[in-house]
Amino acid sequence: MQAPSEQNYIQQLSIDCVIFGYQEKQLKVLVPKMNFRGDFWALPAGFIYQDENIDQAARRILEGRTGIKDIYLEQFRVFGDAQRTNLQVLERLVQLNQEKLRDHWFNQKEFDWITRRFVSIGYYALVDINKVVPQKSEMDASIEWCPIKELPPMIMDHNEMVANALETLRLNLDQKLIAFNLLPQTFTMKELQELYEAIFDKPFARNNFQKKMLELNVLERLEKKFTGAANKAPYLYRFQPQG
Amino acid sequence: MQAPSEQNYIQQLSIDCVIFGYQEKQLKVLVPKMNFRGDFWALPAGFIYQDENIDQAARRILEGRTGIKDIYLEQFRVFGDAQRTNLQVLERLVQLNQEKLRDHWFNQKEFDWITRRFVSIGYYALVDINKVVPQKSEMDASIEWCPIKELPPMIMDHNEMVANALETLRLNLDQKLIAFNLLPQTFTMKELQELYEAIFDKPFARNNFQKKMLELNVLERLEKKFTGAANKAPYLYRFQPQG
């Protein structure tokens, strides 16, 4: 993290990112663990430079943690409780890690800056998990893809943020045709259905699902997938919006 | 408008409100016109007190302009271009209204505060237009319900904000069952259909529409509407979510 300062960044405004990936039939979220004593899990986050659009800021933060540039991202909500502040987290962090913090982080002015009330813009991102090489920031001990059902307790309202991002993802999924951002370029109908089942956490009927997806008119059917058993091989599809 | 100051408000963060009403088969937006020389139309807006949740701030701003407290409101997007500032608007306003501004508004410090880059949280609100008595602020010459198809050119990105709010309203309309906030407590199926047609700006087939609405399982059928012609009178309905 760069030392925050009034001159560089908009004050009291931050961005938090819920980065969704899909793997082993599970929806996952990219979660860094901070490199301090005590278990501090926090969503990838950052601030907005004075000369930077908010979407650019979100892309910069996302690229920093995923190593990729072209990411589907969308605002989902602003979190703006009057009591929303890092103060308790930072105080506990200082308490547990005095020496480390004294050596590396936060002079008093920076501590004051970062413990004020913050309004945070929540973005969610959808990535092809195979393309991402998760990047630790200098404050992280590790960064992991965590199944959404097994998320650790994170700092502040970050668990609520994930729940909210998931809710928005579900609402948007059909209307905005965005699920494909979570898949490799080609996939079978079964794989697509498993993705939807992971996101909605419920089973879909195979025939209905296939019918609905084909009616969207955005799937291009390719050759059959090579499985060794040619006559039962499923078709591969590719997302190809019309017009 | 109260004189803005660093101590009271979060800096560089504002709220803009798109207040939707429905009247004479038209979707309308509540638009104040500022009391200065030159045609300055602007969405109802305000800032966020340091000790105030952002939703509370939006409710305060909405109540100030509509006179009512219980309003359906929802964030729809944050507008955060790096170049987003009141500077051009304020400069033109000063140029055209020197005397008036000198007498009443903005010392230099306030001018500097309000012409910095602002990130703005867009909220849209749905109201029963019959319950609203539009309130001018001290900076307004008038405040009017304007059909969404006849909006004047507003300052900054406010026309884009309305377009965006409308898009979100359309996306949310079925899934969140919110259209009823625009209607009086009871309405006929035809009136409900006309509302949907106004929002989506296209006709719906009567039978399909009625079937779809009844399947939502949120309409309670009441007595027939008194029209004088008893045998052709339509039923009245009331929004009544189950469970």
UniProtKB/TrEMBL annotation, chains A, B:
Q: Which organism is it from?
A: Larkinella insperata
State the SUPFAM superfamilies in the record. Answer: Nudix (SSF55811), Winged helix' DNA-binding domain (SSF46785)
Protein name as annotated: NUDIX domain-containing protein
Under the heading CDD domains, the entry gives: NUDIX_NadM_like (cd18873)
**PROSITE patterns on file:** NUDIX
Q: Where is the Nudix hydrolase domain?
A: 10-170
What domain of life does the native source organism fall in?
Answer: Bacteria
Signal peptide interval: none
